[in-house]
Amino acid sequence: MKILFIVPYVPNLIRVRPYNILRSLSARGHQITLLTLVTDEQDLADLEQIKPYCHAVHTVQITKKDSIVNCLKVIPSRTPFQSVYSWQPALLKLAGDLDTYDVVHVEHLRGAQYGLALKRHTHLPVVWDSVDCISHLFRQAVAKSDDFVRRWRSRLDLKRTEWFEGWAINQFDHVLVTSKVDKTHLLALDNQPHSPTAPITVLPNGVDFDYFQPNPAVSTDANTVVVTGKMSYHANISMTLHLAHNIMPNVWQQNPAVKLIIVGKDPTPEIAELNQHPAITVTGTVPDIPPYLHQAALAVAPITYNAGIQNKILEAMACGTAVVTTSQAISSLNIQPEREIAVADTPEDFSQTILNLLQNEEMRKEMARAGYTYVRNHHNWDTIAHNLESIYTDTIHAKKYHTHTQPSQAQSLLLS
């Protein structure tokens, strides 16, 4: 199958979904042309890691100024800022002969405009991977974020995003999300009840088991807990501050020896400031995450946002580390609480669960083993790619793609 894969940011080990989908589809023999945007030197370095899995890679640079201008242009309209933030029409000019592709895969709300342009001007079947319901994330940010600017920004774009997502699910040939929660919230936004909604399929995230795996050679520190994630992402910021300010003080009151390691790139000033606490280490960007998971007795994720699949949880379990999280975080997982993962929702319960597991090595190891078995059985990227392959095939057949479309006409419309 020849796939045109469009993603508004370079796939890498942090943006695990597109990175592993590309790798797995390539391993299954598909020919992939990747169109993506670059912003800095790190993006260019990350491209070198993904190129071996692609037939061709084409990029266009986008600057912060470009994104701001895009957003300013849509202020008078109902178009959300997120949907135009990554719009660079020059990117589509690099697709080449559009009639050579069997299907188009477009990721995220920030990439939706590329798919919509192709829907308007070609007969290509377009699969939109929404990933999350962004308006659902915005609603939670408005209600829960500790950052005033972030709350204001989310509130500003919320109504626009609700309208756009409710409209967009009727525009594509198939829609993907990572969880049942996101599917439910997207369907609730449908604002075109008389138009046929595209099929919406839950395609969960997997784990790269070559990268995230147990390492028995590493000694575990029985008094270390770790939290991971990109520390500029608002949901991770909220989670980490909640952990440091509301949960860990209860832990330290009973066991002052416990250490907290915060691992993740681009920590905001409020996260970096936690480094001043003698029991907290904020690493910033690290070359590899698994060693920190191997070292820690527990991975903790007191997640307060209910959306998507939490990769940090799956990755910790794949490394053979026991995990403590919230009921919201596992709402999209078919997992057994208290056997494969520990669940606690209040700060008091969360801190007590941490203390109990740190004190009970056998219980902690048994939970780690069960969690590892769960993630191996349910979150394998090859299985996910196989399911995506079937979605592509069904979408192509349903679309009844007309191979007689003149490429010159489609291309001229697209580039106009």
Textual characterization of the structure:
This protein starts with a strand and ends with a helix. 44% of the residues lie in helices and 16% in strands. Helix 5 crosses helix 16, helix 6 packs antiparallel against helix 7 (148-168) and helix 9 packs across helix 13. It has a 7-stranded parallel sheet with strand order 3-2-1-4-5-6-7, with helices on both faces. A 6-stranded parallel sheet has the order 10-9-8-11-12-13, with helices on both faces. Residues 401-416 have low confidence and may be disordered. The chain contains 16 helices and 13 strands. The protein is globular and about 65 Å long. Strand 9 (259-263), helix 10 (269-272) and strand 10 form a beta-alpha-beta unit. The chain folds into 2 domains: 2-206 and 381-414, Glycogen Phosphorylase B (Rossmann fold, 3-Layer(aba) Sandwich), CATH 3.40.50.2000; 221-378, Glycogen Phosphorylase B (Rossmann fold, 3-Layer(aba) Sandwich). It is α/β, with parallel strands linked by helices and 416 residues long.
* Distance from first to last alpha carbon: 28 Å
- SS field, number of helical segments: 16
* Strand order, sheet with most strands: 3-2-1-4-5-6-7
Low-confidence stretches: 401-416
Helical residue percent? 40-55%
Number of domains: 2
CATH architecture of the largest domain: 3-Layer(aba) Sandwich
Order of helices and strands: EHEHEHHEHEHHEHEEHEHEHEHEEHHHH
* Coarse morphology: globular
Mean pLDDT: 91
Largest sheet: 7 strands, parallel
| Derived structural class | alpha/beta
Q: Which CATH class of the largest domain applies here?
A: Alpha Beta
The fraction of residues in strands falls at 15-25%
The CATH superfamily of the largest domain appears as: Glycogen Phosphorylase B
